[in-house]
């Protein structure tokens, strides 16, 4: 049997290796490495224990906000707006879910993860991440409901889906936008 930490370490090395193969080496790596490690850790924690630890998200938010003061390919305000918009959208989902389901549909950990994502990705890539999340999250939710005999009270760990969408947007986001934009111009 593998030690629980071994898959996490392997995934972290794999994720960083994938990042290294697609990202040009630059000062952005100072942002990328802690972000990718946080995404992987959050994914495993939420999948296994249904919790996104504040010990990861809050220091991540502080670190990302601080690093982005010095390393910001986009205007700094764009990262702040992206964080507030991402977290704000999920907070609205939380309120709507509370009214409709009479229980929490989204946890505060998901909201904090979106704050972190916004501070790292910026506005355009955070919105792309959100679109990817909605698509994949919907498919995942449908699968879980169907596989559990139509039980609509299935609890879905959104952390891994948000983290995956954020990772895809961070690594491939500009190429995705360029590809879609070029197709729209044809």
Automatic annotation (TrEMBL):
The keyword Transmembrane applies. Residues 35-142 form the Prepilin type IV endopeptidase peptidase domain. Coiled coil: none annotated. One of its GO terms (molecular function) is aspartic-type endopeptidase activity. InterPro entries: Peptidase_A24A_bac (IPR014032), Prepilin_IV_endopep_pep (IPR000045), Prepilin_peptidase/N-MTase (IPR050882). GO terms for biological process: signal peptide processing. It comes from the Bacteria. GO terms for cellular component: plasma membrane. Keywords: Membrane, Transmembrane, Transmembrane helix. The chain crosses the membrane at residues 29-45, 76-93, 113-146, 158-181. Belongs to the peptidase A24 family. This is Type IV leader peptidase family protein. It comes from Paenibacillus prosopidis.
